[in-house]
Amino acid sequence: MNMTREELIGLVTHGGGTLVFIALASVIALTLAIERLLAMRRVVADAKALHDAVSRELLRGDAVSAEQLAARSKAFAADIYLAGFARWRQKGGRGFESVVDRERLSRVLTLKRRLWAIGTIGTIAPFIGLFGTVVGIMSAFSSMAESGTGGFAVVAAGISQALIATASGIAVAIEAVVFFNFFQARLGNISAELKLLSEEFCELLADLPAPERSGGTPGASAAPSPSSGASEPSSAAPAPASASASAPEAG
Fold first, then answer.
1. How far apart, in whole angstroms, are the C-alpha atoms of residue 162 and residue 177?
2. Cβ count near 64 (within 10 Å)
3. pLDDT by residue (tens digit) across 104-149?
4. What is the pLDDT of residue 228?
5. How many Å apart are CA 118 and CA 29, to the nearest integer?
6. Alpha-carbon gap, residue 46 to 26, rounded angstroms
7. Which candidate in 132, 136, 189, 234 could, as Cys together with 161 as Cys, close a disulfide (CB 3.0–4.6 Å)?
8. pTM above the 0.85 mark?
9. How far, CA to CA in Å, does 73 sit from each of 48, 53, 131?
10. Among positive and negative, which fits the CA dihedral 227, 228, 229, 232?
11. Cα(129)–Cα(164) distance, rounded to whole angstroms?
């Protein structure tokens, strides 16, 4: 065990200062990967469970209970259903499909955040290792110039530093690229599942009768009819008065 620890310390020592940045990049990539894995862990399962519950209520024609289920749910996709119900009531059963689709895209973009950092680490890690390689080779030639002689013993330390930095950079790059590709594929599956569920939700919601609008508009449209009806008798009322007034004149 002590031998292994000494070998690890010697490896880091001979790797040069670039190994600090490479190790830091590896820790960041691993931390972000664990965080994104937890964030995406039950997105599809919870969305399907919520969708089944909401669909049962919509098939029974009970949109109020379906909306209440979505409001109480802690599923990641609950906001998609709530946005659809809100626009469905607001627009009288029309124009909610685009709102559902926009909310779905917004939810997917939320899952996509921080993935750029993992991809960036996968891209720059080999270059950091290459920088360490260049520094190691420069150290080897500097040692050769100081000693005035050649040979493997003179350049061994610099070459060792160069090879360790290169290998470490490639290893971290492989780690980050694997994480990035895994999450990209997982995100694509989640996006496809949410799209299918949201489209089915829109179909079920569109089959329901249009919700009743607020009473302000019908009351305003019904108000002119009594006034118009009252204006007609008032306009007809002066006619008998004029006739009665002309009768005495005729007498």
1. 23
2. 11
3. 999 999 999 889 999 999 999 999 888 888 877 777 677 666 766 6
4. 38
5. 5
6. 31
7. 136
8. no
9. 12, 10, 51
10. positive
11. 8
Tokens 């209970």 belong to which residue? 65
What's the CA gap between 25 and 51, in Å, rounded? 40
Q: How do residues 140-170 score in pLDDT, each as one tens digit?
A: 677 666 766 655 665 666 677 778 888 889 9
- The CA distance from 165 to 178, in Å, is 20
Residue type, 136: G
Q: What angle do CA 221, 87, 44 make, to 5 degrees?
A: 165
Residues of the chain with pLDDT under 70: 1-16, 93, 140, 143-145, 147-158, 212-251
Q: Residue 211 falls within a domain, yes or no?
A: no
85 neighbors 167 (Cβ within 8 angstroms): no
58 within some domain: yes
- Separation between Cα atoms, residue 74 and residue 57, nearest integer Å: 18
In a domain, 243, yes or no: no
How many angstroms separate the CA atoms of 53 and 60, rounded? 11
Domain that holds residue 110: 11-206
Q: What is the C-alpha to C-alpha distance for residues 66 and 97, in angstroms, rounded to an integer? A: 17
Whether the Cβ atoms of residue 91 and residue 238 lie closer than 8 Å to each other: no
The encoded tokens of residue 185 equal: 């594929």
Is there a domain that residue 131 lies in?
Answer: yes
Q: Which two tokens stand for residue 145?
A: 């110039």
CA dist., res. 221 & res. 159, Å (int): 89
Rg (CA), the chain: 38
Query: Do the beta carbons of residue 108 and residue 191 sit within 8 Å?
Result: yes
Cα dihedral sign, 14-15-21-23: negative
Q: What 8-state DSSP symbol labels residue 93?
A: S
Identity at 61, one-letter amino acid code = G
